[in-house]
Amino acid sequence: MNDLYEIYEKCGISRQVYDYGEAVLSDLAERFTQFDRTAEYNQLKVLSAMSKCKVSESCFVPSTGYGYNDRGRETLEKVYATVFGTEDALVRPQITCGTHALSTALSAILRPGDEMLSISGKPYDTLEEVIGIRPCTGSLAEYGITYSQVDLLGDGSFDYEGIRKAVKDNTKLVTIQRSKGYQTRPSLSVDAIKDAIGYVKGINSDIVIMVDNCYGEFVETKEPSDYGADMVVGSLIKNPGGGLAPTGGYICGTKECIDKCAYRLTSPGLGREVGATLDINRSYYQGLFLAPTVTCAALKGAVFAANIYEKLGFDVIPNGSESRHDIIQSVTLGTPEAVKAFCNGIQSASPVDSYVTAEPWDMPGYDSEVIMAAGAFISGSSIELSADAPMRPPYAVYFQGGLTWYHAKTGILRSLQALVDEDIVQL
Ligand SMILES: *Cc1c(COP(=O)(O)O)cnc(C)c1O
User: Fold this and answer.
1) Residue 236 and residue 26: Cα distance in Å, rounded?
2) Which of 193, 235, 330 to mutate to test the pocket of ligand 1 (most atoms within 8 A of CB)?
3) Mean pLDDT for each 10-residue chunk of the chain (427 residues)?
4) Which of 89, 97, 342, 362 has the most CB atoms lying inside 10 A of its own CB?
5) Of all atoms in ligand 1, which is nearest to the CA of residue 215?
6) What are phi and psi of 146, to 5 degrees?
7) Per-residue DSSP letter, 94
8) What separation in angstroms does the CA of 340 have from each of 287, 344, 379, 413, 425?
9) Does the C-beta of 93 come closer than 6 Å to ligand 1?
10) Does the C-beta of 177 come closer than 6 Å to ligand 1?
11) Which residues contact 19 (CB under 8 A, 6 or more apart)?
């Protein structure tokens, strides 16, 4: 394979780094086959949903103004509901991001005096302001909605005893976050979430269960909504957008929940009937169609990175051999210099903005500076190859995405090259 190294050399990767990568890769064939099989299953799941919902060319016609009778939007929402095994769905560009989708779902269900309970510990950073854990204008706390939390146990499993004690008469909604976000706990498997859903429904079947599904879609063959979650919520510039959706979010769930979400998202009285899609629907369909294989590419990249950095002695979560429940890979690099080198290695391997240097900044919604490496076609898209890290100890970098496995591989090799070039790592 001399030919192949030739092109890597042109991309700034030394022989030593390349050979190191190939040696790591030679042990990963079986894992990759597993990912391919999951992608195959999910590809057929998406394909059959599109066929069942009779997706046609007319679904790609843009709507403007109020967006009444937007057939493309209505059919897309049926496709999402079918793929996620729910009664209904909202999938729209008016949902601006994952945080907005989650915030909409929470404020749709909760009323003053209600309590929401997180049973997977601290929620994702941006939700702290939505809930009011960190005070913020317009938070749920301002509306008299209280919050409580049960942390996961030391081994990352649910604290069932703690959950039983925390559920009160006014507990209206339980939230579960599938992916670890910017934490170092393990991500949750769909099986583990399934058990927790059963347990909570056993205490009180009226409690609405919401799963923050960000980064988890299509990683397994089942979704939490296949096991009784009332709502699964996520971002279209992550897995389900397949890299093509230019913006948006989704909520899939029971008819009752989705109706409430629609009235919250647009306006009481209008609900889901309004919302022009302009010229965006085609990218939603096509992105969803590609999402299973894109997610598979990202998973291969994550496992490759885990094995590379684990062998070099860094703490990696998940470790090189454990099963995957989302596309995020964290690598604890220990110093700000190493974090910057890693991120800029990824940056330099990007198709867009490869020549810029990533610097930490005060990103809205986060409580410490964050460095983000991304040279994406869609701004901020983290299904595209990207790395980000809050600039605080333990200086862990969170790495995700890759629209193709080969791009993810190159990005990881470039990150390693940067660490080698700065003498942070010796091969
Ligand atoms: C990304 C993410 C969010 C927020 O999504 P944005 O689109 O960045 O607003 C929420 N929860 C988790 C677990 C995430 O990974």
Assistant:
1) 33
2) 235
3) 86 97 98 98 98 98 97 98 98 98 98 98 95 97 98 96 98 97 87 98 98 98 98 98 98 98 98 97 98 98 98 96 95 96 96 95 83 94 94 93 98 98 95
4) 342
5) 15
6) -95, 165
7) T
8) 31, 6, 20, 15, 14
9) no
10) yes
11) none
